[in-house]
Specification:
369 residues; alpha/beta; TIM Barrel; 12 helices; 15% strand; globular; alkanesulfonate monooxygenase activity; Dimethyl sulfone monooxygenase SfnG; Luciferase-like_dom
């Protein structure tokens, strides 16, 4: 099945491991590190082999296998200054940021990086962080209403002078931000619920989905596009996937089995208790992780569900199939980041480009008939 708009080439992003514990909550060996020198080299490698984006995670306190964590915006800026082309997306929480302050930071980051700074607005699932910091915890749809205002304020401050905004959560009075960004920072937002999709369609440039199979992607994508079209907008679609590329399918499947078999059970179950409550708190019951299994949550954004597991050929074909359904970007997690991003860039990404070129050629031939 294809959708109304298909990108010429799918883009690639990777999760920045600025949080300890890697991208799976498992005691399997993970040859990765959350320190800056490792991440600096990783960003430079990813840029060299063809990744366009990196997403810095946001976590403020030790929890669920993430004992240590670097703050996302400052870490993103450091990676931007260590690279030349890579766009770095900093995840931020409304409720812990005032949008005018983030807008100022973002404008500076834009100028320092030559227009490569972006923001992922995370409405918040981790109640414990907010309450530990003495901040109010809002109900599910109220968090998304706050995020909607946050996104609107960012956009206005980055594009307008003498900004006035009177919302339920933020009030801006005759405020002018200078300098403004030279390149408008792209705004990303995720979530599964109706409130999340509505926000993305009306206010974001990109919608991030947790891991999904083909049917799940299509259902979400069509819904977000419907909302966006009603608002006279267009939104791009990013899909999370945990990538296990090996020379044989058997090797890749064995790695997946070992990850799950060695899962840190207390950490996974603690995470499941927190996020299942968060997902089911959505009025429609469609919040993130509402239907995630224990195995899904070993990769904490349902990355196994996207099934990017197998040989380079199998993974490339599945990525191109997602592209045909309207996916614009794959957000990849890896077990051993440095070596696996190298492998992906050498073995998988070229196959994706070959398949995309072949499909475009076939479409041109059909159009000429």
């Amino acid at each position: 099945m294809s959708t109304e708009r298909v990108a010429d080439e799918i883009k690639f992003a990777y999760w920045v491991p600025n949080v300890s514990g890697g991208l799976v909550t498992s005691d399997i060996e993970q040859r990765t590190s959350w320190d800056f020198e490792y991440n600096k080299k990783l960003a430079q490698t990813a840029e060299r082999v063809g990744f366009e984006y990196a997403l810095s995670q946001v976590r403020y306190t030790a929890s669920y296998g993430a004992e240590f964590q670097h703050e996302s915006t400052s870490f993103s800026l450091a990676l931007l200054l260590a690279t030349e082309r890579l766009k770095v997306i900093a995840a931020v929480h409304p409720g812990l940021w005032q949008p005018g302050v983030l807008a100022k930071f973002g404008a500076t980051a834009d100028h320092l990086s030559g227009g490569r700074f972006a923001v992922n607005v995370v409405s918040g699932w981790f109640k414990g962080e907010f309450t530990a910091l003495g901040e109010p915890w809002l109900e599910h749809d109220e968090r998304y209403r706050r995020s909607a205002e946050f996104l609107q304020v960012l956009r206005k401050l980055w594009t307008e002078d003498n900004v006035e905004f009177a919302g339920d959560f933020y009030r801006i009075r005759d405020f002018t931000l200078k300098p403004k960004p030279g390149v408008f920072p792209e705004l990303f937002q995720g979530g599964n619920s109706t409130a999340a999709r509505d926000n993305a369609g009306k206010h974001s440039d990109w919608y991030f989905s947790n891991g999904k199979d083909f049917d799940g992607v299509t259902e979400q994508l069509l819904d977000v596009r419907r909302v966006a079209q009603g608002a006279g907008r267009e939104v791009k679609f990013g899909l999370n996937g945990f990538i296990i590329a090996r020379d044989t399918e058997q090797e890749a499947r064995d790695v997946l089995r070992e990850i799950v078999a060695k899962a840190n059970k207390p950490a996974v179950e603690g995470f499941r208790d927190a996020v299942t409550q968060a997902g089911r708190s959505a009025p429609d019951g469609k919040g993130m992780w509402a239907d995630s299994s224990y195995e899904d949550l070993v990769q904490y954004n349902d990355g196994f569900r996207s099934e990017l597991i197998g040989t380079p050929e199998q993974i490339a074909e599945r990525i191109v199939a997602y592209r045909r359904r309207g996916v614009d970007l794959i957000l990849g997690g890896f077990l051993h980041f440095q070596e696996e991003i190298e492998y992906f860039g050498a073995r998988v990404l070229p196959l994706v480009r070959e398949l995309e070129a072949a499909e475009r050629g076939a479409e041109l031939e059909l159009a000429a008939v």
